[in-house]
Each structure stands twice: as structure tokens, then as C-alpha cells.
Amino acid sequence: MVSALYFVARSSVFKVQKTDSVWGLIEMRTAHEFYCLAVDPTRRERLYAGTFNDGLWISDDGGLTWEPAGKGIFHDRVLSVAVSPTEVINGYSVVWAGTEPSELFRSEDGGKTWIHFPKLLDLPSKPTWRFPPRPHTHHVRWIQPDLHDEQKIYVGIELGGVMKSEDKGIYWEDRKPGSQYDCHTLTMNRLAKGRIYEAAGGGFAESLDGGETWATFNDGLGSDTYLVDIAVDPANPDTMVASAAHGAYSAYDPQRASTVIVRRKNGKAWEVVTDGLPEREGSSIFSLISHESEPGIFYAVNNLGIFQSIDAGKSWKPLLKDWPKSLIKERVRWFVAV
């Protein structure tokens, strides 16, 4: 069962934990504004967090204190981090970090040293990669180690597409037709080998064959084709929820936000979910997660609260009675469960 949820906002890490059936919120202030977060499933108090200008940081006490990662990541903007769910070397889960501009790094010793994978930048599509708000650059937005094969890893470039390696990052295959190029989030499901789910600026895409072929499916989304996050029911690979908006302008800033959660089941059209969730106006984009220990359960967090669904995304309820007013105007980033 999930014992704790973590998310980041401003210069704080927030921990949501259940005590005697009541969920409570702990704010842990840091010296940095974190942009991404990952937890080591083999060491539940070990967190990795990336920053926009101050590199990667590591906590061994659940976010109370932080130390800089070891040298080897030669860009200060670390905008994605992932811990391998399958690969453990010398007692450490393998960690991946992605930067702006786009580079990929791997650590096999808990972040003390890092290996660089330069051939990611040798792909033919690389000259077309760009990030519209900063058009002179681009970044690794998401890293998805394969849940079934430790040799495989998928990387989402914003804006560039989904790239695949079948030898732990040494050589890479370029984006495939049918995938979305404005990649935001990738995920997988342990019950569906070779199935990859992508939430992107152009909607939803998926591959059923390990990234060889892709298909986009936006039926039911209407104008809400700007997808940012996606989560899949651990008990049913055909049930998923995603966070959606009309575009980037209305997705992130709470002052002008207008977003929804959408749900898809058994290959049918996407549907907007409203039961138990705030009105879309003023509601910034949700971060979404599920956990393999909790079939049929989803969690969502944004500027207006943290919510749980126990019926596979059909209805939601807030986990906390008192949501900090200080977060209502803040962008909430990343979301992990342990």
C-alpha cells in the first residue's frame, strides 16, 4: 500500500502521509526550487530532485535534508529524473537524469558518479528539436525505463518526440510516425509488456510493440488535446486518466488556468471527469499517479488540492480537509508515491 505521497511547489517538498486513517501534509522547505522528483523503491526515504539552475540533489531522509549529487552531470538544468524499477547494481537502483539542453546521464552508485550517453544527440531529428518558450533550446522532459526489460529505455524530448534505446542508452532509435513530438509524460503498466503511453501537446499516443509503431487517439478530447500527465490503472492496462487543457497558455499558471481530468477505458473515447473535482477555471494542470500496490486507485494533485479516486478514475474526493491557501496561486510540479 502507498505509505506517502510527495510533490513539489515553490522551494518546498510536500509529503502527504496517512496516520490512523487520516491524511496529513508536511511542508519541508529547501534552498532550491525543484522541477522534478523521483523516489527509490528499494530505499523509500531516498529522493532525487532536479532544479532549473542548480543541478541534481539527493535526500536520504524523505526530503528533510538534501545534498548535491556527485559530479558528472555537466548541465545545471536537470528537468527529469527516474529510478529504474528493475535494475539494481551493488545495492543501488540505477538512476537516470535528463537535462536542458538535452543530454542523458546514468548513475549506478546512488548518484555519486554519472555516465553520459552522447549518441542520443546523433539522431537525424535532432536539428528539429526545440522548446517553444525558449526556442533556442530543448530538454529531456521524461525518462521511462522499461518495466519488463532492463535493456530498454524511452526518453521524451520537449519538443522532439519519443526516442528509444535497446542497450541501456548507448545507441538510440529516432522518433516514430504516429507518436507525438511535444512529449510531456511517458508511462507503462506491468500487466502490458511492450505497451507505452504518451501524454503530449498534441494529445494521446501509444505503442503496443515496445515503441516500434505508434498511434494517436484523441476521440472525445474535443479541444482539450494538450495533455500533460497520464496514469494507468495497475489492475487494468485499458483504464487510464490524463490531465488536459486547451493549450499551454491555460495549463500551468493558476491565474489563467482552465484544465480537466479525462478518462479512457477499454479503447473507447476519452471522457471528462467532474465528480469530486474542482471547476476547471482556476484549476491548473493535475499531476497524476497510480501505484502497483493499489489496483483501481489514482491520485491527483494541483494548486487546489490533492485528490484520490478509488473507482478507477470515475469519481474523486479530496484527501486533505485543509489545503494550504499559499498553494492556490502556485504551480504544483511532479508527483511520486512510496
UniProtKB/TrEMBL annotation:
Protein name, entry field? Photosystem II stability/assembly factor-like uncharacterized protein
Q: What is the lineage of its organism?
A: Bacteria, Bacillati, Bacillota, Bacilli, Bacillales
Superkingdom as given in the UniProt entry: Bacteria
Under Pfam families, the record lists: BNR
> Which Gene3D superfamilies does this one have?
YVTN repeat-like/Quinoprotein amine dehydrogenase (2.130.10.10)
Output the InterPro entries linked to this UniProt entry.
BNR_rpt, WD40/YVTN_repeat-like_dom_sf, Xyloglucanase_GH74
